[in-house]
Amino acid sequence: MLLSKYFIPVLKEAPREAEIVSHKLMLRAGMIKQQSAGIYSWLPLGLKVMRKVEQIVREEQDRAGAVEILMPTIQSADLWRESGRYEDYGKEMLRITDRHERDMLFGPTNEEMVTDIFRTHVRSYKDLPLNLYHIQWKFRDEVRPRFGVMRGREFLMKDAYSFDLDEASSRAAYYRMFVSYLRTFDRLGVKAIPMRADTGPIGGDLSHEFLILADTGESEVFCHADYMKLDVPGAGVDYDDDGLIQSIVEDWTKSYARTDEMHEEALWSNVDAAQQMNARGIEVGHIFHFGQKYSEPMGAKVTGPDGKDVPVYMGSYGIGPSRVVAALIEAGHDDNGIIWPASVAPFDVGLINLRSGDERTDGACASLYDQLTNAGFDVLYDDTDSRAGGKFALADLIGLPWQLIIGPRGLDNGEVELKNRSTGERESLNNEAAINKLMTWQSETKARFGG
Ligand code: P5A
Predict the structure, then answer these.
(1) Is 318 a pocket residue for ligand 1 (Cβ < 6 Å)?
(2) CATH assignment of 349-449, given 2.60.120.10, 3.40.50.2300, 3.40.50.800, 1.10.10.410?
(3) Alpha helix (H) ranges present in 262-306?
(4) CA-to-CA distance for 239 and 371, rounded, in angstroms?
């Protein structure tokens, strides 16, 4: 992509209402634009990162056996009256009346709708287990939308819903999603710690939140230092092996890890003081097991092997890709801007032409651009006539993993400069060596994050 043909409307300064670093940087880097309180447009750079997050989430849902669908954003109030949540949900629900005076709403979540799909099409235990998910916009009329897309009113959610014949298989489904979340956040390049959680308006008896540690997180967290060293299961993990999946969950839940909402001082004091981590975190995922809470009132039944009908056992599993984008910035930035994890960076390499308009430099850049693009790199080529200082500042701000800097002086010596955004290391190399170094990084990145 040529920067002259792209659209990154950077801001010199972040608007004053932006309180946290991710919100400031997303505005400054031209990733999003606020349209109303808590409602944002996603501009090309922001959208590109969010799509990459979504894709990793999707691949790990598919791997764990979930099946993608797409439900609408607008729902009928009648479905919610069946579960009893229409009145309970209160002011957070955006209620709409259509031209026929029918009560509609903009979905804050989809437990009712997916239960309706299930009861229409599934009758027998032979069709179970089933897990349906979609990636769709949600609306919650939060009292205090803030921190940009971190706590928006309109936000993107991946929500999955599991259906099982009995309690034991339903828990196995919950554990599969738990493990798939460990893998998802690992591939997103962050450490997310599962913590015992409250179930709130979704309900149920078992729930975990996944939190990314970051100084600006909204929740205070208390967790055992063990979580820093636990292994995340590899891509080959066998989701059909219930025993294995449960043992992974046990490993990841045996040590203390809770947010302030669920914190219990008496239990915490049993953790060796040297192992106590008291930090802040951002909730990026939340999973729930609620059994027959929706299937019972909504009549979603299956016939078991004994010929008896039972309300199906369910769980629901959320990740907010729009919030994840902001959380990754909270976890990865410095004074100059964003530092993206390799797996979701909007481009791999920023190619910087230090003298656009100079025939030799333009030619060298064009040739490197072609070589890198042909080798499978996503390159953003700064071919504009901005000053070098401005180009460096932009490249640092948008946080691509590598900057490849081409100028007349280097070319005199047959060299280009390669800068690593996260370490700040710069190296002068010939073209071939620079490309080789990038190729090595590319294959290591694929091996580490490619799933
Ligand atoms: C689980 C899936 C649910 O709604 N029903 C379907 C369950 N859970 S949740 O915890 O309420 O939300 C799931 C994830 O969505 C993201 N999220 C948000 N992101 C941005 N702005 C918001 N206002 C917001 N609210 C929730 C979070 O990532 C959360 O973990």
Answers:
(1) yes
(2) 3.40.50.800
(3) 265-268, 295-298
(4) 40
Cβ of 320 closer than 6 Å to ligand 1, yes or no, is: yes
Tokens 């409250």 sit on residue: 198
In this model, does residue 204 exceed pLDDT 90?
A: no
The CATH superfamily assigned to 3-338 is Bira Bifunctional Protein; Domain 2 (3.30.930.10)
Check pocket membership of 316 for ligand 1, CB cut-off 6 A: yes
Distance CA 335, CA 230 (A): 30
- Most ligand 1 atoms within 8 A of CB, residue of 109, 134, 157, 161 to mutate: 157
Percent of the residues in the chain that have a pLDDT greater than 70, as a whole number: 100
**Does residue 142 line the site of ligand 1, with CB under 6 A?**
yes
One-letter-per-residue 3-state SS of 51-71: HHHHHHHHHHHHHCCCEECCC
CB 149 within 8 A of CB 327: no
How much is the average pLDDT of 138-164? 96
pLDDT at position 103, please?
Answer: 98
Domains in the chain: boundaries: 3-338, 349-449
Query: 282 — phi, psi (to 5°)?
Result: -115, 125
Identical fold for domains 3-338 and 349-449, yes or no, is no
Q: Name the residue at shortest CA distance from atom 17 of ligand 1.
A: 320
Mean pLDDT of 237-243: 98
Question: What pLDDT, on the 0 to 100 scale, is given for residue 218?
Answer: 87
